[in-house]
UniProtKB/TrEMBL annotation:
<keyword id="KW-0472">Membrane</keyword>
<dbReference type="InterPro" id="IPR036249">
    <property type="entry name" value="Thioredoxin-like_sf"/>
</dbReference>
<feature type="transmembrane region" description="Helical">
    <location>
        <begin position="6"/>
        <end position="24"/>
    </location>
</feature>
<dbReference type="InterPro" id="IPR013740">
    <property type="entry name" value="Redoxin"/>
</dbReference>
<keyword id="KW-0201">Cytochrome c-type biogenesis</keyword>
<dbReference type="GO" id="GO:0030313">
    <property type="term" value="C:cell envelope"/>
</dbReference>
<dbReference type="InterPro" id="IPR017937">
    <property type="entry name" value="Thioredoxin_CS"/>
</dbReference>
<keyword id="KW-0812">Transmembrane</keyword>
<feature type="domain" description="Thioredoxin">
    <location>
        <begin position="49"/>
        <end position="196"/>
    </location>
</feature>
<dbReference type="Pfam" id="PF08534">
    <property type="entry name" value="Redoxin"/>
</dbReference>
<dbReference type="GO" id="GO:0015036">
    <property type="term" value="F:disulfide oxidoreductase activity"/>
</dbReference>
<dbReference type="GO" id="GO:0017004">
    <property type="term" value="P:cytochrome complex assembly"/>
</dbReference>
<keyword id="KW-0676">Redox-active center</keyword>
<protein>
    <submittedName>
        <fullName>TlpA family protein disulfide reductase</fullName>
    </submittedName>
</protein>
<keyword id="KW-1133">Transmembrane helix</keyword>
<dbReference type="InterPro" id="IPR013766">
    <property type="entry name" value="Thioredoxin_domain"/>
</dbReference>
<dbReference type="InterPro" id="IPR050553">
    <property type="entry name" value="Thioredoxin_ResA/DsbE_sf"/>
</dbReference>
Length: 201
């Protein structure tokens, strides 16, 4: 009888301890950890380029988005940007993800210390690309046209959008194929920090 009594007392105490533990855990606030605190380049689908080699110079056909509708593209040597980190962003007006991403990329271009070149691979005339960019309010990016996909083929940009990361020494050091969450401050800061700092490897 005495043993049975001790048994039941033990059960009651154990249950009381379990209930008390559950109550304290329920009322305990979770640690406030940002889901982006440990964000890495790999989370952004970044793929490093290996081996890293200097790029040979090439021509860019830049259009002035705010220019006259019939204004012709201006040929610019890529080497003119040497000494500055560059993102070559391949896109098209007929590419749904590209169009969805473009406004946030444009906003990224407003505050970044990177030369952001949006290379449009449309086969339409440059004037149509200009009108499209005007309609989307693209005013913080350099816009280039690549009607025959010469640059896209050169860089192996087989899927759109594709962002090519080039350091200040004119070397391709990595790329992201697919949309980038440019509006995500943690992601944008990560790209900015590594590309401007030359730490992407």
């Amino acid at each position: 009888m005495f043993k049975n009594k001790n048994f039941w007392v033990g059960i009651v105490i154990a249950l009381a301890v379990m209930v008390l533990y559950k109550v304290t855990q329920f009322n305990k606030k979770p640690a406030e950890i940002s889901p982006q605190e440990n964000l890495t380049l790999w989370d952004l689908n970044y793929v490093p380029t290996k081996p890293i080699i200097p790029l040979e110079d090439f021509d860019l056909l830049l259009i002035k988005v705010q220019g006259d509708d019939n204004e012709q593209p201006v040929t610019t040597k890529f080497s003119s940007f040497k000494g500055q980190p560059v993102i070559l962003h391949f896109w098209a007006t007929w590419c749904g993800p590209c169009v969805a991403e473009l406004p946030s990329y444009n906003q990224f271009g407003k505050t970044s210390n990177i030369v952001n070149i949006a290379v449009c691979v449309d086969k339409t005339p440059p004037s149509q690309v200009r009108l499209f960019c005007k309609s989307k309010g693209i005013d913080n990016l350099k816009v280039a046209v690549d009607q025959n996909s010469i640059l896209a083929n050169r860089f192996g940009a087989k899927a759109l959008p594709t962002s090519i990361f080039i350091n200040a020494q004119g070397q391709e050091i990595g790329r992201i194929t697919g949309m980038v969450t440019w509006e995500n401050k943690a992601a944008a800061n990560l790209i900015e920090k590594h590309l401007v700092g030359g730490a992407i490897r």
